[in-house]
Amino acid sequence: MRNAGNFPGPIPPERGNLGALETLDLGFNDRTGQIPTELGNLRMLPMLWLANNKLSGAIPPELGKLAALRRLNLRGNQLSGETPALLGQLRNLQVLSLRRNKLTCHIPMELGAFSELQLLKLEENQLTGPISPELGNLAALRRLDLHSNISGAIPPELGKLTALRWLNLRSNQLSSLISPELGNLAPLKDLSLSSNQLSG
Hints:
Layout: E1 9-10, E2 23-25, E3 31-33, E4 47-49, E5 54-57, E6 71-73, E7 78-81, E8 95-97, E9 102-103, E10 119-121, E11 143-145, E12 151-152, E13 166-168, E14 173-177, E15 190-192, E16 197-199
Parallel strand pairs: 1-3, 2-4, 3-5, 4-6, 5-7, 6-8, 7-9, 8-10, 10-11, 11-13, 12-14, 13-15, 14-16
Domain Disease resistance R13L4/SHOC-2-like LRR: 62-195
Keywords: Leucine-rich repeat, Repeat
Pfam families: LRR_1 (PF00560), LRR_14 (PF23598)
């Protein structure tokens, strides 16, 4: 269990000089300020964990340079603005958690390029617009959580996510018929569609 408050204050940009790092975990530390753009220099880094701090500002597009990254967890901060399209270059990413921030963009279509992604958590932000059909390209995805965010219809492309085990779309403003293609998700163990305006 992590101890909160051990290293409060901004993240030193000098962390970007540690080119041999295999893990950077600064979670649960009351970190403040913005994510330093210098972290984009950690080209060998497989895991970046900055969860449950008080980080603010935009997600720097420089994080899209972290080609070796497999786990990116920025949940539980005060990050705002858009999710940079450059994150779509992280082709080895397996876990992406941006939940409980203040992101206000559409779900970027570039996320559909994450062919290795197994977990995608974007819930409890202030996202706008519909679910990107491109998410149907995430062939390895096992968990998708978008609750308390979005509007529009459930795209039929989600029916292609045949590895999916958990789909949480509750407490959105989703409308229209439930896509019959969701019937293709035979391995699905948990489906939550409550508190929407769906029919069928």
